[in-house]
Structures are given as C-alpha cells and as structure tokens.
Amino acid sequence: MSTSELSRGDTVDNSQVELVPITPKLIAMDRASAQATAVPPALLAYQPESYRIGAGDSLFITVWEHPELTSPAGPQQATVANGRLVRSDGTLFYPYVGTLKVTGMTIEELREAISKKLAAYVEKPQVDVSVVGYGSQRVLLQGAFVKTDPQPITAVPLTLAQVLGTATINTDQANLSGLVLTRDGQDYHLDLDALNSGGKLAQDIYLKPGDRLFLPYNDRQEAYVVGEVVKPMAINFKTSDLSLTQALGRAGGLNPLSAKGKAVYVIRGVKDLEQAPSKVFSLDARSPAAFALADQFMVKPGDVVFVGPAGVTRWNRFFSQLLPFSGLINSAANANKDF
What we know:
This protein has helices at residues 24-36, 41-45, 67-70, 107-118, 160-167, 192-197, 244-250, 288-294, 315-322, 326-338; strands at 17-21, 58-63, 84-85, 91-94, 98-101, 127-133, 138-143, 151-152, 179-183, 186-190, 212-215, 222-227, 233-236, 242-243, 259-268, 278-283, 298-299, 304-309. By secondary structure, the chain is an alpha+beta fold. InterPro entries: Poly_export, Poly_export_N, SLBB_dom.
C-alpha cells in the first residue's frame, strides 16, 4: 500500500513519508535488532585486571615478627591509623626501603619489592600488603540516581549491577532505557529494562576506573495519542516497553462512534526530512488478530499514534491535525538521538 492510499483523495509527498504495515515479520525484525544491540560486545569483552595501586590509596603493610615496622603508631591503634598513604605523585615511603614509586603496581608486585629491599636489614622478611582505603580510582555517576557519590574501584571487581544497586535508581524520574556508560571517550547506550528482562547480563558488565554513568530523566520520554480516541493525550513512560496496545489503552481506546479501525498509524519522526523520510507504521485494527500485533509493536519516545476518523478523510487534514505536535515530534526525536 502506498501513502496515497491512506484514504481516498489524499495527496502527499511520498519522498517524505515511508508507509510500513505492522506485520509479524516487522515485529520479528525489530526484536532481532533489539537483541543484537542490547549490550555492546566491547563491554561484555572487558575483564578486570588485578587491582593496581593508585594515588590516595592507604596501604597496611605487615612485616611479620617486626611490629615496629608494621604498627609504628602502636598496636592499640586502628588499622587505618597505621596505614601508609600513597602520595599524589604516586610515591610511598617505608622504613629501610625508602621512597618507592608504587602507582600502577599490583599488590603482589609491591609486596615483592618491599621484601627485596628489607632483605638487606631483616633476615627472610615475611611481608604482606593490603589496601585499607581506596583513593582516586572511581566510577562517576550523574542523573536520575538517589545517590550520585562516586563509587571506588577496589580489589574486588565492580559490576554495573553493584553500582546501580548502591546508587539506587530514582524510578519515578529515570529513563531506564537511556543509560549511557562513557569509557575511554566512547559512549555506550544501555537499556536497563532490556538488560534486566534478558537474564543476568547486567551482572556481567564489569566497570573500570574512570567510567562514567549517566542516567537521563524521563521528562522528555513522551509519546502522543491523537485523533479518534476517547482521551487524546501525551503519555510519559520510563522504559522501552510501551506497546501500541498500552498507548491506545491509556488513551481510553478507539472512539467507538467516530474511529476508523483500519486507520491506526504510528508516526515516527526524524531529525531531517531532507535526509531521510519519516516512517508511518499502519495497523488494520478491525480484527482481534491486529491487537495481538499491536501488543508486540513497541512505541518509542516522540512517536505520534494517530487514529483516523470513519469515512473519507483527506491526507491534508491529517497533517493539519498533527501540526500543533510537529514541534514536539522534532524535539523528542532530537532528544532521543542525543540520549
């Protein structure tokens, strides 16, 4: 079916609109695409290395049978009080060893380095090193979290699920489908709702020092239901799982007196009509089977769901009804692209 067949006597510039019937094949293709892009492979491929000491870390160094080296502040003091701070220049001072450049070392590498230096003064030194305070190696958080305090990278590998659990998502305000993880200057977009419904993938994403997490707010996450429905409205939603059936249901359903069941459209705008046409997804809602398709077709932010009236309606009238929403469509399309 072409755009000129939307209703008898309509005229439209076909170069700006692509009409796509909602079919089982279309839904299957959308699902396959969503699954393929649910988690960027680069994130799943990353495996954390052994912890490397950084500036600001506090280290507790034990030399067995030598309490004067282990606890210079006295054994009655807390462990932290006997910790040795890694300076901002990455160095650490230790008696009989001197100043060592320790940033970038693993705990095992530092233990061996201290043991070798002490061997000139202590017979067969038994040295142990542990981190009692973590400094500058952190994951930064911004956006719709209850707690946005930076979270430290520790000797225990840190996962995305752990960070989100500690930060606590503001479920009333968060756009769960728009999480952005920035690593080494590259942005990775994640749909938290899809991750959670797809098993334990979120727990398998390890974070590294310097990662940034931004969870956008959902104040621009809207779809618009207009035309011959009981309650035309803007619908705010938090996840990517807003189906066409849900959108129509929240608007009270099709108006039984004036709606044309064959004329149910989802208009998906683009940023620049000169570069790519807008897509108009069409659904013939006159049969029960159509609502099974509608339940699996996902509405996206910025979409306009339009239900046409019964009888002959010109395509030009359709666009005139959409005119007040054109600015909203463009803004939502741009916002969705930015996220």
